[in-house]
Amino acid sequence: MAALLDDTAAGPRVLLMRRTERAGDPWSGHVSLPGGRHEPSDLDLLATAIRETREELAVDLAGARLLGHLEPLHPRTSGPTGIEVTPFVFATEAAVTATTSAEAAAVFWLPLALAASGTLDETFEYPGAPLAFPSWTFEGHTIWGLTMRIVASIVELSR
Questions:
Q1: How buried is 127 (Cβ within 10 angstroms: 0-12 exposed, 13-18 middle, 19+ buried)?
Q2: Residue 25: what pLDDT?
């Protein structure tokens, strides 16, 4: 799920979170958008996105406007069975108060124009492996991988 807030002269911002560090979690400590696994009780993937956002960040998307969803993506590090991620994008004109939870250690807003400007560009070296990925560094947070791909897609669509 991606929540966009356009309440400043600097333009839209996207809500991101840093996941809580947990043993055995392949995304432990990574920056991500709120989201998670589809549950049988969810009517559809949109319901999953709304539920996960509420559970992880205590954000109620009832007052937000659904802009649509992006094409499904596949994380490059999703294991042998793989997973599919369908990002839904919401816009809000009023400030959204997001809070941390057992799953979110930090929450922050990334300005899209700043991400697109190139000033945040870095290279992330994957720990314990000779792999390097493009990344953004913002307020001490490293945004890379699937999260960067999703936000970069939103940046492109907003131009």
A1: exposed
A2: 77
DSSP β-ladder status, 121-125 and 132-138: antiparallel
pLDDT value of position 69: 93
| pLDDT at residue 139, as a whole number | 96
Q: How many helices and strands, by DSSP H and E, does the chain display?
A: 3, 9
| Residue 109 to residue 10: CA distance in whole angstroms | 12
Structure tokens at 145: 């991988």
DSSP secondary structure of 39-107: -TT-SSHHHHHHHHHHHHH---GGGSEEEEEPPPB--TTSTTT---B--EEEEESS-------SSEEEE
Residues whose CB is less than 8 angstroms from the CB of residue 21 and which lie 6 or more positions away in sequence, other chains included:
28, 29, 105
The single-letter code of the amino acid at 4 is: L
pLDDT tens digit sequence for 104-141: 999 999 999 999 999 999 999 988 888 899 999 999 99
137: left (phi over 0), alpha (psi -120 to 50) or beta: beta
**Residue boundaries of the structural domains of the chain:** 2-114+145-158
Domain 2-114+145-158 part of CATH 3.90.79.10: yes
